[in-house]
């Protein structure tokens, strides 16, 4: 991911991008990325958020792109400035993986196909991020076309704003990396 082409943009946690004609890359663990693609206009947006919501007492100086609730405002502002409707976008959701699988105490959480009901009550940040994305997108009038969420390990995402294609490359969990290095 260090060899970016001139037309590549790399997002870190808390960043948001709206535009066209480039590829946007990001690396996710428990964080979530949401992509919006407008097929007729051939442009879109992507976010990389860290947490489902800003907690009480957290500084308002932190980037709004760090929190799912606030990222949805960024999407809405971009859409309004562009004169488009939520329903005209192809929406995809990625991330929310468990990065330290040995810390998972609930055996069901080790399953990538964890049920919606179980995920709703989960204390894992990844699960909370996934639930926030689903709830907020539905409330905003977006329909999720595809997702690659949960499970164990990281994800490398490439979102091509020329075609709307998204590629996902899965990585290992941190504990597995530590075992290989030992």
Keyphrases for this structure?
182 residues, alpha+beta, 60s Ribosomal Protein L30, Chain: A, five-stranded mixed beta sheet, four-stranded mixed beta sheet
H and E string: EEEEEHEHHEEEH
CATH topology group = 60s Ribosomal Protein L30, Chain: A
- By secondary-structure content and strand pairing, the structural class works out as alpha+beta
Beta-strand proportion: 25-35%
The low-confidence parts are none
Helix content: 10-25%
Under the CATH scheme, the architecture is 2-Layer Sandwich
CATH class: Alpha Beta
Distance between the termini: 24 Å
Order of strands across the widest beta sheet? 2-5-4-6-7
Rg over CA atoms, rounded to whole Å, is 16 Å
Largest sheet: 5 strands, mixed
Question: In the residues, how many domains can be counted?
Answer: 1
- Mean pLDDT comes to 85
Q: What is the tally of helical segments?
A: 4
Summarize the structure.
The protein has helices at 68-82, 116-120, 125-139, 174-181, and strands at 8-11, 16-19, 23-28, 32-38, 43-49, 90-95, 144-149, 155-160, 166-170.
Structure report:
It is a single chain. This protein is of the alpha+beta class and 182 residues long. The protein has one domain (8-181): 60s Ribosomal Protein L30, Chain: A. 24% of the residues lie in helices and 28% in strands. It contains 4 helices and 9 strands, in the order E-E-E-E-E-H-E-H-H-E-E-E-H. It has helices spanning 68-82, 116-120, 125-139, 174-181, and strands spanning 8-11, 16-19, 23-28, 32-38, 43-49, 90-95, 144-149, 155-160, 166-170. The strands form 2 sheets. It has a 5-stranded mixed β-sheet, covered by helices on one side. It has a 4-stranded mixed β-sheet with strand order 1-3-8-9, with no helix packed on it. A hairpin with a 5-residue loop joins strand 8 (155-160) and strand 9 (166-170). The longest helix is centred in the middle third of the chain and has 15 residues, at 68-82. The radius of gyration is 16 Å and the shape is globular. The relative contact order is 0.21.
């Amino acid at each position: 991911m260090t060899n970016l082409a001139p037309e590549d943009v790399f997002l870190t946690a808390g960043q948001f991008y709206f535009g066209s004609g480039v590829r946007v890359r990001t690396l996710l663990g428990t964080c979530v990325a949401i992509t919006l693609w407008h097929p007729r206009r051939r442009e879109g947006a992507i976010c990389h958020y860290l947490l489902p919501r800003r907690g009480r007492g957290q500084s308002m100086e932190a980037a709004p792109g760090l929190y799912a609730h606030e990222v949805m405002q960024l999407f809405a502002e971009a859409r309004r400035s562009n004169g488009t409707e939520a329903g005209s976008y192809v929406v995809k959701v990625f991330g929310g993986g468990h990065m330290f699988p040995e810390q998972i105490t609930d055996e069901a959480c080790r399953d990538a196909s964890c049920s919606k009901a179980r995920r709703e009550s989960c204390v894992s940040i990844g699960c909370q991020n996934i639930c926030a994305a689903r709830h907020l997108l539905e409330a905003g009038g977006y329909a999720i076309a595809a997702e690659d969420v949960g499970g164990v390990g990281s994800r490398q995402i490439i979102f091509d704003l020329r075609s709307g294609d998204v590629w996902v490359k899965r990585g290992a969990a941190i504990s597995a990396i530590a075992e290989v290095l030992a």
